Amino acid sequence: MKLYSIMIFFKKLKKNIFLNFFNTILSLVILLTTLLVCLNTFRWFIFNADWRVVTSNLSLYAFGSFPSDEQWRPAIWITSLLLLSIITLCGPCWKWIQQNLLLAWMSTIPLGLYLLYGGFGLSPIMSRHLGGLTLTILLTVCSSLLSLPFGIVLALGRQSSLPLIQKLSSIYIDVMRAIPLIAVLFFGQLLIPLFLPVGIEIDRVWRAIFAFTLFVSAYIAEDIRGGLQSIPNTQIEAAHSLGLNQYQIMQLIIIPQALRIALPALTNQAIGLFQNTSLMAILGLVELLGIGRSILANPEFIGQYIEVYVWLACVYWLVCTIMAILARHLEQTMTINQTNF
Amino acid sequence: MRRLFSGIVSLTMLLSGCASPSLENTSRLDLIKKRGELICGVSGKIPGFSFLESDGSYQGLDVDICKAFAAAIIGDSERIQYRPLTAAERFTAIKTGEIDLLSRNTTFTLSRDSVGGNGLTFAPVVFHDGQGLMVKKESGVNSLEDLANKSICVGSGTTTEQNINDAFESASLPYTPIKYQDLNQVVAGYLQGRCSAMTSDRSQLAAARSGFKNPTEHIILDAVLSKEPLAPASDGQDQKLADAMRWVVYALISAEEQGITKSNIDEKVQLAKNNPQLKPLRRFLGIDGGLGEKLGLSNDFVVQIISTTGNYGEIYEKHLGKNSQVPIPRGLNELYTKGGVYVSPPFN
C-alpha cells in the first residue's frame, strides 16, 4: 500500500515536472535557485544577522517610551485583545460565551483608552508616551470604530431621496477618494493646528485618528453602498406591507444584510488601515515603524536596517493575519446564522 | 437664511475672539516655569544628536542642549517632554505653541530668522556642520588637491552635488562625480570601491562611518565645503525666552573657556564664595551681580546647567568626541583660542 502511493507520487512528479528535456532543465534550474535563495537566507538569519537590535529593544517596539513602571497597562490591553481573539476562534461553544463575545469586543476599546490614558485611579499618561505596537493598534482601532458609523451615514446619505443630502454625501466621498491619504494626514498634522486659535490644541494622536477617519469613511461608505444596492427592492416593499416604518426597515432589514455583504470589503479596509498607520512614521509619531527608525539612529545599532525591517515585517504580518482570520471566522458565523432562517 | 447668516457671523466673531487672547505680555518663559516642564522638539532619528536609547530615553547633543535649558529655567533637567518632529512639522510646532523650543539640527538661515520668513529667533550655534569628504585611510588622501582626477560618490539632485562641483571648479581641479539616488546607496558605492571618496554632511559621514565594519580605516578630511550652522530656535515674538536661551548657550561656552566642568563646579563655587576679589567668576556663578534675575532665571542658573550637563566641550566629547560612537573632529566647533569659532560675550 505504502509502496503503491510512493509510485503514484513519482509518476505524478514525472508527468508534471520532468515530462520532456526542456521541462526537466527548467524544473532543475528553478529548484536549484529556490534552494540557493533559501539556504542563503537561512544562513543570514542564523549567522550574519545580529538580532540584539530586536531583542534588547522589545519593550520599545511594544510600548514605545511608556513609563517603565506603568508598562503593565498596555501589556494587559494587548494581552486581552490576543486572548479574546483566541477565545473567539477556538473557545468552547458555550452559549453564554457566544452571547457575551460582542460585548467583550466592544468593551476592549474603553478599557484600552482607560489603561493607556489613565485617570480614575491610574496615573494619567500623556499621549506623547504612546508608541510602538500599542500606538499602531490604538490608531487602527479608534479610526476604524469612528469611521464605520460615519461611513454608514454617508452611504445612506448617498442613497437618500433628499437632493441636498445626496449631493453633499457624494461630493464628500468623491473628493476624499480623489485625495491621497498622505495629503489628508499632512493636513491633519500641519494645517489643523494653524487654523485652531492659540491655546487650543488637539493632541497629535487624535489629529491622526481624525484624519484617518475622514479618509477611510469615504471608502467604507462605498463598500456599504455595494451592500445596500444588492438588497432587492421586494424586501423593502414586503417590509412596508408588514407595516414597518422607514427607520425600522433600515435598522432591522437593510443595514444588517448590507453589512454582512460588505464584510469582506470592510476587512480589506481594516487591514489596509492597519498598514497605512505606518505613514505616521514620516509625520513624527513613533508608532511601530517610527520606533524602528528611532532605534536605528542609536549609534549602538547603526546600519542594522535589514534586521529591524525584517522584524517589523514579521510583526505587521502577524497582526494582519490575526485580523484576517478573525474576519473569516466572523463571516462564517454570519452565514450559519443566515441558513437558520 | 438671515438667521443662518447671522449665525455664521457670530461664530466667526467668537472664534476670532478666542484667537487673540492677550498672550503678548506673558512670556513663554513664565509659562514653562508655571508648568514645571519644558517641551522640547527634537528629531529622534539622528545618531549622536538625538536618538532613542534602549530604555526609552532620548540621548544626544541636541537632547543635552534641551537638558541645559530645563536645568536653567526649571532647575531640573529631568522635567522635559521630548516631541519627535519631522523637518516639515518643526516650524508649525513652534508657531502653534505645541513646543516651547526646537533643538533639532536646524540650520540658522536668514529666511528662517526674519519676520518676513519663518519668524523664528535662533540661539547661538551649537554645532557647525558642513559638507565634508570621507576617504579610506590607506589611500593616503589628505586634502582636496589629492583627490584631483579621482572619482567621488555623491547623492544626486541635492545641494551636496552642487557644493562639491563648486569646490572643485573654484580650485580648478578635475574630478569624476558618481551620482546615486540617496545616502545609503552612496555609502554602498563607496564601500564597494567605486569611488575614492564620498561626500555628505560631516555629521552624516560620521554616523555612516560608525556603522562600517572597520570604522577606523576611514577618515573624514578637514576640508569643509559648505556652512550648516545648527542652532536651537524659538518663537521670534518672545524676546524673554530668546534671551534666556541665548545666555544658556553662552554659559556652556563660557564655562569651557574658564575651565569650569561638571566635576569641579562645586570647588569653583566654594572658591568664588571665599574670594571676593574674583569678581568675574562670582558674577558668572551668580554670587554677585544678579545676572540671572535680569534674564528671568535664578541667579545660580549657570551652576544648575554645568552640574547637570557639563560645559559645551564635555557635551561634545560625550556624544561626538573621539571616544564616542559617532566621532566627528571638532574643527570649527572648538573654542576661538584653539582655532574654532566659539566665543562667549562677557557675563557682565
Question: Could you characterize what this model shows?
Answer:
Chain A is an all-alpha fold and 341 residues long. Chain A is built from 14 helices and no strands. The model of chain A has no long low-confidence stretch (mean pLDDT 88). In chain B, 39% of the residues lie in helices and 15% in strands. Chain B has 14 helices and 14 strands. Chain B has helices at 2-19, 28-35, 61-73, 90-95, 110-113, 159-170, 183-191, 202-210, 239-257, 265-274, 279-284, 291-295, 301-309, 312-320; strands spanning 38-42, 51-52, 58-59, 80-84, 101-102, 120-122, 127-129, 131-136, 151-155, 176-180, 197-201, 218-220, 228-230, 233-235. In chain B, strand 2 and strand 3 (58-59) form a beta hairpin. In chain B, helix 3 crosses helix 9 (239-257) and helix 9 (239-257) packs across helix 13. Chain B is globular. The A-B interface holds A 56-57, 59-60, 64-66, 68, 126, 128, 186, 189-190, 193-194, 196-201, 204, 282-284, 286, 290-291, 293-300, 302-305 and B 15, 18-21, 23, 44-48, 50-57, 81-86, 88-89, 92-93, 95-98, 184, 207-208, 210-212, 324-326.
SSE layout and pairing:
The complex is a heterodimer of chains A (341) and B (348).
Chain A: H1 2-17, H2 21-48, H3 52-55, H4 58-63, H5 72-90, H6 95-117, H7 132-159, H8 163-178, H9 181-195, H10 204-229, H11 233-241, H12 246-276, H13 288-296, H14 305-340
Helix pairs in contact in A: 5-6, 7-8, 7-10, 7-13, 8-10, 9-10, 10-12, 11-12, 12-14, 13-14
Chain B: H1 2-19, H2 28-35, E1 38-42, E2 51-52, E3 58-59, H3 61-73, E4 80-84, H4 90-95, E5 101-102, H5 110-113, E6 120-122, E7 127-129, E8 131-136, E9 151-155, H6 159-170, E10 176-180, H7 183-191, E11 197-201, H8 202-210, E12 218-220, E13 228-230, E14 233-235, H9 239-257, H10 265-274, H11 279-284, H12 291-295, H13 301-309, H14 312-320
Parallel strand pairs in B: 1-4, 1-5, 9-10, 9-11
Antiparallel strand pairs in B: 2-3, 6-14, 7-13, 8-11, 8-12
